Amino acid sequence: MSHAEALSGKSPNGNSGKPPAEISIEALQNSDRPYVLADDLGQVVAINAAFQSTYGWTEDQLRGQSLSLILPGSFQMSHQLGFSRFQATEQSTILAHPLRLKTVCADGSEVVSEHFILGEKRESGWVFGATLTPLPDCVEIDA
């Protein structure tokens, strides 16, 4: 079973299910895949070394900044609307499902990546962690 299948809850035969219980924001954060952590305002809290080496951003460049810095301009409005809807309803159709989206690199280039996003409600509010795995350019994006 691939990492994406394990995170998505899909078995090798294609059946969907719930993500394994052991998958958590901490598990994503401790993986070797590029990772970003954001707060309930959509501001970057942390990235890991794999994110830095893959996409060229440093933690100092992103910490405290909007996630929109790593999103293509054409997707920023959709992201803001979805994020606002989630804040109002706490209902999501994208959490714990792999998404093929573009990620903006520090040099301005864009890389097609598989985003796997988890949200977790804590005493201080929601936190969101995501792995962003680069994919070949020929892969079509979801949005």
Q: How many beta strands in the DSSP annotation?
A: 5
Low-pLDDT residue spans:
1-21
Spatial strand order of the main sheet = 2-1-5-4-3
**Rough shape?**
globular
Residues in helix, % = 25-40%
Number of helices: 5
**Main beta sheet:** 5 strands, antiparallel
How much of the sequence is in beta strands? 25-35%
Characterization of this structure:
This protein has 143 residues and is an alpha+beta fold. 27% of the residues lie in helices and 27% in strands. It has 5 helices and 5 strands; from the N terminus they run ααββαααβββ. The chain has helices at residues 3-8, 25-29, 49-55, 59-62, 73-89, and strands spanning 35-39, 44-47, 99-104, 110-122, 125-134. It has a 5-stranded antiparallel sheet with strand order 2-1-5-4-3. The longest helix has 17 residues, at 73-89. Residues 1-21 have low confidence and may be disordered.
Task: Give a brief description.
The protein has 5 helices and 5 strands; from the N terminus they run ααββαααβββ. It has 143 residues and is an alpha+beta fold. The radius of gyration is 14 Å and the shape is globular.
What are its keywords?
5 strands; 143 residues; alpha+beta; 27% helix; disordered N terminus; five-stranded antiparallel sheet
Fold blueprint:
Elements: H1 3-8, H2 25-29, E1 35-39, E2 44-47, H3 49-55, H4 59-62, H5 73-89, E3 99-104, E4 110-122, E5 125-134
Antiparallel strand pairs: 1-2, 1-5, 3-4, 4-5
